[in-house]
């Protein structure tokens, strides 16, 4: 298989649709609660002024993934700039710790909760407590399942993330379902089964690629195609690496080339890249990712990862701050999706930010010129 680079970001409607705007480290628990400013300030998007003296609790899953560090920092910065007191906590990827932290936030008098759940269906106790206290909850980038207590959901268009990854593979290889003269091998590395988003990423990509698999143009030699077979607990790099090492030794040790590695995000892609470096001598595959983590962006520059879907956490943070202000001021809350995200109890009104396509051709404009990273960080 000879891989082609896209001469433009994505062809046709694909490129147009992606360029609209909204992602691992030592673990610590952030117990700080910065003091509230005395005067409410206007939100960064020009929306309503923050309600004076209000407190917002922000619960993040872990500091083990780069993106959650960035999300937490961006959220705290944006909320404090808008005039709120912020209680930010990281839960070391432990659900009981997160439940305890959320309950503490409620007892500390938080007026709104912003929660990125570790396990989507395991926050029932804390959600019941928030409902009893009439505290609005914004699910942040991971939908909280099986509860009526979630008021709103703010995230990226997660299905589109997968669609971008799948379409990149189709466009790069020039796949045509009617042309079976060339075949390619592929292995899939999906995300955490406890994260509702992982299903959207996977299903978005597979809706693009299924027809080529069914036609025999793409072959999954391991036979591992279903989400339950390819999921990676906690999005862990080491778990993705171990699984890929097993696949390589079992199905590709005879010299068969692995042409495509569909990876749902950058932490799983990094595990796959580590496994390839240690256990694979064939032609290097296409590798997809998501989040534009620093190590993966370096690998993208070095040709070890083909692309990543960029989700600018600054955009998402700004939107959530706007929603917090609208809630606390009794205003209509901006949403742009009222049909897609059913958490088992209700369809949660949502605001979806658009992901952006990134590769070696545009990462400077997207990541450096925008101030997301400095050039030194990617050296």
From TrEMBL:
GO terms for molecular function: carbohydrate binding. CDD domains: PBP1_ChvE. Pfam families: Peripla_BP_4. Residues 25-53 are annotated as: Disordered. Residues 35-53 have a biased composition (Low complexity). It comes from the Bacteria. Residues 1-22 form the signal peptide. GO terms for cellular component: outer membrane-bounded periplasmic space. The keyword Transcription regulation does not apply. Keywords: Signal. This is ABC transporter substrate-binding protein. InterPro entries: Bact_Solute-Bind_Prot2, Peripla_BP_I, SBP_2_dom. It is found in: Cell envelope. It comes from Pseudobutyrivibrio ruminis. Residues 56-332 form the Periplasmic binding protein domain. The keyword GTP-binding does not apply.
């Amino acid at each position: 298989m000879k891989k082609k680079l896209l001469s433009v970001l994505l062809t046709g409607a694909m490129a147009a649709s992606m360029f609209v705007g909204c992602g691992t480290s030592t673990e610590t628990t952030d117990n700080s609660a910065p003091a509230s400013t005395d005067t409410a300030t206007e939100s960064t998007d020009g929306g309503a002024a923050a309600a004076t003296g209000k407190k917002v609790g922000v619960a993040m899953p872990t500091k083990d993934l780069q993106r959650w560090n960035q999300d937490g920092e961006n959220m705290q910065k944006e909320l404090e700039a808008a005039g709120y007191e912020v209680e930010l906590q990281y839960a070391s990827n432990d659900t009981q710790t997160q439940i305890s932290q959320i309950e503490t936030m409620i007892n500390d008098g938080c007026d709104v909760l912003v929660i990125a759940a570790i396990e989507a269906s395991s926050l029932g106790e804390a959600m019941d407590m928030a409902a009893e206290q009439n505290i609005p909850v914004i699910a942040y980038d991971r939908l909280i399942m099986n509860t009526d207590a979630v008021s709103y959901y703010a995230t990226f268009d997660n299905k589109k993330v997968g669609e971008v990854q799948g379409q990149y593979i189709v466009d790069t290889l020039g796949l045509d379902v009617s042309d079976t003269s060339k075949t390619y091998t592929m292995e899939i590395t999906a995300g955490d089964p406890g994260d509702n988003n992982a299903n959207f990423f996977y299903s978005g990509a597979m809706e693009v690629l299924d027809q080529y698999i069914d036609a025999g143009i793409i072959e999954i030699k391991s036979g591992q195609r279903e989400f339950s077979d390819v999921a990676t607990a906690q999005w862990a790099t080491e778990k993705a690496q171990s699984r890929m090492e097993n696949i390589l030794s079992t199905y590709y040790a005879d010299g068969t080339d692995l042409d495509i590695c569909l990876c749902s995000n950058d932490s799983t892609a990094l595990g796959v890249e580590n496994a390839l470096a240690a256990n694979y001598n064939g032609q290097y595959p296409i590798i997809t990712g998501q989040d534009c983590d620093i190590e993966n962006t370096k690998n993208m520059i070095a040709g070890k990862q083909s692309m990543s879907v960029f989700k600018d956490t600054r955009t998402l943070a700004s939107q959530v701050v706007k929603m917090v202000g609208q809630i606390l001021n009794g205003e209509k809350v901006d949403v742009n999706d009222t049909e897609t995200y059913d958490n088992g109890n209700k369809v949660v009104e949502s605001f979806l930010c658009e992901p952006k396509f990134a590769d070696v051709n545009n990462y400077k404009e997207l990541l450096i010129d925008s101030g997301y990273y400095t050039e030194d960080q990617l050296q």
